[in-house]
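From the pipeline queue, job 12 of 40. The input is one protein chain; the requested action is below.

Action: predict structure.
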Amino acid sequence: MIKRFIKLLIKKYVGNIAYIKARKFYWSIRNKNIILILRKLFIKKNYKKDKFYLNIGGYIFLKKNWRVLEYISESYPISKYLIDYNVNLLLNQKLPLSNEEVDLIYSSHTLEHLLESSVNFNIRENYRILKKNGVLRIVVPDIDILWEACQSKDFRILNKLGDKKEKEQNISEYFLNNFSIKKVNKILLENDFNKLEKLEFLNKYQTTQIKDLNKHDYSRHISWFNYERMKKILINSGFKEENIYKSSYLKSKKEEMKNPKFFDYTEPETSLFIECIK
C-alpha cells in the first residue's frame, strides 16, 4: 500500500516521466541490495524438490521454496540474481521446466501484459508443467468491475486518476489504457464508449499486435479478462471445467498462498481471482 501511495503521488504532482525515472532509480537500488541477493541465494540453496512453487511475473519475490519467472527489460530492470528464470512470455516459447514438475503456480497481474495469443500459449504451458492435482492461481484486473466503475463514474474505484474534472474528461481513455495500447481518435473513442455494448467495445479496441518488441513498454496492459473469458482459456488449455472456480482475496484452497505479505495485494478491489486444479 505504501509503494502504491508513493507511486500515485509522484504521478499526480510530478508527472509520468518523473515516475519512470523514479522507478528506474528504485530498481537500481534494490538490484544492488546485497541483503536481498543473499536472501535469494539462501532460498535457492534450500529448494525442496517436493515443494516446487513458481511465481510467474513475481518481480522481487523472496519466499521459501518459491522460484520466480520474470523478464528483465527496461520497464522492469530486475537483477538476474533475484530471479530464477528470465523468460519473455510474449515470444511464446516453451517454458524451461519439465512436464508435471511444479506443485503450485501463482501469477498476479501479469497476463494482462500479454497478447491474447501469448496468454493462450502460456496457460497451456502452465498446464503442462503442473503436477497432477497441482494448483494454478491467477489474479488479473477484472474488466467487468472496471467497465461498471467507468460507466457509473465510481471514483471510489477509479482512484488512479487525478481530480474529478480530469477524471470526467478522460474516463474513456483511462478505460482504454487499462487493456489496450491502440492509438485512436479521442472523439470516436468517447462516442464508442458511450454507445457500444461492453464486449463490442472491448473487441474493437483490443490490442492485436506489437510492432516492435524491442521498443515495447512491458508495463502496459494489452489484454482484458473477466471470469467467463478466463474460464474458457483454462478449459481450452486442458483444465476440466469442474476444477475451475472463482476465488476471492486470500481465499486460496492452498494455505501456502494465503499470506497477505506475499499474495493478492495488488489492487484486490478491482481484481479477478481464479484457481484451478489439474
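Job complete. The beta strands are 53-56, 66-70, 85-86, 102-108, 130-141, 244-246, 271-277.
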